[in-house]
Design goal:
By secondary structure, the protein is mainly α. 51% of the residues lie in helices and 3% in strands.
Length: 295
Amino acid sequence: MARPTKEGLDYFPLDTDIDQDEKIIVVVAKYGMRGFGVIIRFMMEVYKSGYFYRWTEKEHYVFSMKVAEPVEFLNELVEECLKWGFFNQKMFEEYGILTSKGFQKRFLLASTRRKGHSIKPEYNLVNVDINHSSEVVNVNNNSVNGGDNVDNNSVCSGVNVDNNATKESKVKESKRNRDIGIYEEIISFLNDKTGKRFSSKSVANKKLINGRMSEGRTLDDFIHVIEVKCSQWLDDSKMNEYLRPSTLFAQKNFENYVNEKPKSEKKKSIDPRDKDIEFQRWIADGNDPDEFTWN
């Protein structure tokens, strides 16, 4: 008797900075490690099945039992993951499955040596040009429309997995470089205003900045907060030490700071005698007393 073909994966790769991925950073910021742990369990279920996890009423209760979390919380978490693109919205609405282009690409790459593994055309997100026929997309030699096999770096009608991976890598690198620029700009501005030497490469500082940006805050908001608190604390020996990222960018503080206004400079008090002196000078210079104005 032939051995049944294994559908899912025994293990899957997990990036060390996955909690900073733009598709889940808001979810992690909102639900903390509780939400992050559930997301990892969802990933386990997806790869255990192959490249998708069916999310129907039955799975709601089964998965709820596995992770010891209420169904309401799980559905709320799924909605957030769909909203930010961790799971594909269209696939969920049409077929009730949790999947994404990333899940499918990693599944195909991990199962290139297996025979008979395939992605249904209606579920396929790797190749958007695929003909939606009743056939399945085969990752081996018998692929739809005569496509090359995966060992020749091609999946599903000539889609080159290596090229896609390279493009994705370039996009990630571009985003990483852009993020590094934001960290440097914010921390450098703080250092210039305070004369301190905080590091833009600090993991703690990056997490604080990422946390606020995941809440919709912009570079201008960070600049505003720094300017506001410097105007209030820079010359205060007791408060000056709090001009630091851990205080300024903390969630409990930032919301209040960003709505404050810079401390206004005290106007110099006017001495009434100055007016009399200027008036006497005005007359001494031969000017009309009625035309004298005092600013």
